[in-house]
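At this stage, I put together one protein's amino acid sequence and its backbone structure tokens, which the following lines show:
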Amino acid sequence: MPYCPDCGVEIGNAPRCPLCGSPNPKAVPDVQNPCKDADITGKHPAANIIFEGGEGIFSKEEKRTVLWEVLSVAFAIAIVVLGAVNLFESRRLSWSLYPVVSILLLWVEATAFLVLKNMQALRIVLGAIAPPAFLLALGFVSGSPRWAFGLAIPIAVLVESLTGALVLAIGKSKRKGLNLVAYVLVAVAVLCIGLEMFIDLFARGVVVFDWAPICAIALLPIAGFLLYLHYRVVKATNLRRLFHL
């Protein structure tokens, strides 16, 4: 009687060990059904998921869909529980609106990245709109949307714009190296200037630069030097010869 070469379990003529999944070297193929004993998936049997109608394996798309469905149900239960507790305690919706809005943001982002993977444009648009919409909703929930319109949303749009430009610049780079660090430094400098502008306009109504230019003056020359090293020195010079390595 054949035994599993790995764990020693008696396996008879089974194509694989039912315990550890190792192939049976002494298995006799079924001549009537040659595909019966073949592992056409190339995966460990433990990866197989048993359905009511037979065996199958989740594809990546199915895994994303199942994950999104589980998250949706969990989020819905959380929203219902939060609303019920708030209504029972205060007889109105008050503090529960904050976590509910946050949960809705997570659900929208999960939908964009799990369900809309094949719709790249819609995925990007939905993922970009969600954070400003979340901040706007928080402003209305708090009863003071002024800070959302005047400060939070402009900063969120600025951060998203810089992130998009940074990803685009990195993606367009044929050679990646010190130039990536330079791009990040330039983005941080622009972010500092934008932050001070929005904060001054919200708090004072006029832009009075104070700390942001100092950050930009410190960061931009470093970025320029890194770009020089990347596109001039590193490209034209063998670093091993330069440093005698």
Summary: The longest helix spans residues 60-90. Residues 85 and 91 are 9 Å apart (CA to CA). DSSP finds seven helices and two strands in the chain.
